[in-house]
């Protein structure tokens, strides 16, 4: 049997590459299954959501194998898998979904009812998401393979665009979901809080949806410089307390048609010393969004945040000015992106040269052994999206 290695969370600020078990056709609870496929991983990305755990801001246990952004080649499949075959090159949605429950049938795959006994929704290598082993490794199991996997139509073509296609597992559909659920359409003026990879994906999505002006706000000068280089307007939120005034300087009015929170519960903004900054971000977005507009919230929020500045925030309770949002008739959309709603269309946009997402998020390939350094650099705010190459596929493609 082949060996396997993966990136393990070992406590706040520490990850290490370890020898781990080769995947078995079974659930985290040990039940044998025949609807799964085992993949040899082609690419797997470091995500900001992983970074939340590594910073110690969740209840993730030590030893958790990280990674939910996965692209791979099928090397084994269960006898119940009919339409995916050995040798297929596939994208893996980070949502694990059964395809059979009411939520999945209604295409809400981010809140599948059957893959996580703790709460709705499952994911690979993530705290409270069902115990499924993560994919920052050489091999991984994908359950319900026929339903979950997106097969690339041509392997050679896919490998020529693999740094773009690896974004289909999470950040590109997540950014697109944030923009679309906020109501971005042709001619929209859009503000995106956060210039990290998800924020840049939301900016790219806004562009392809037809936005007239896309503004990205952050306090990280390196990330803002990259966003500017990619053609987006930028705002350094550290230089002014009045976001609406900064927006007015750019577009002539102090408001936008749609706003996206691409940061989540670890946001850093104009919050008070004993107030969780995400509340400040969300309240700001309500203030700058035109009446009856929308706020998309693809940024991650958790039920428990042990590192929060006060007891309420540790339980996910934030001081949101909901009355302000209500009085302005705003609509809000939260939660995991249902990747299967978007990934095929976004794949086509990539394959037909409409969406150079790897360039926009500054995809940077590193080895599996360099994952700890990648986490450290990402934590410092590097304007990069780190892509791991655990089996040497990307090196050969290059």
TrEMBL record:
Swiss-Prot/TrEMBL cofactor(s): Zn(2+)
Gene3D superfamilies from the UniProt entry: Medium-chain alcohol dehydrogenases, catalytic domain, NAD(P)-binding Rossmann-like Domain
The protein's enzyme class: oxidoreductase
SUPFAM superfamilies the record matches: GroES-like, NAD(P)-binding Rossmann-fold domains
Residues covered by the Alcohol dehydrogenase-like C-terminal domain: 197-266
Keyword terms: Metal-binding, NAD, Oxidoreductase, Zinc
Pfam families: ADH_N, ADH_zinc_N
Family listed: Belongs to the zinc-containing alcohol dehydrogenase family.
Listed name of the protein: Formaldehyde dehydrogenase, glutathione-independent
Species per Swiss-Prot/TrEMBL record: Alloacidobacterium dinghuense
Gene that this sequence comes from: fdhA
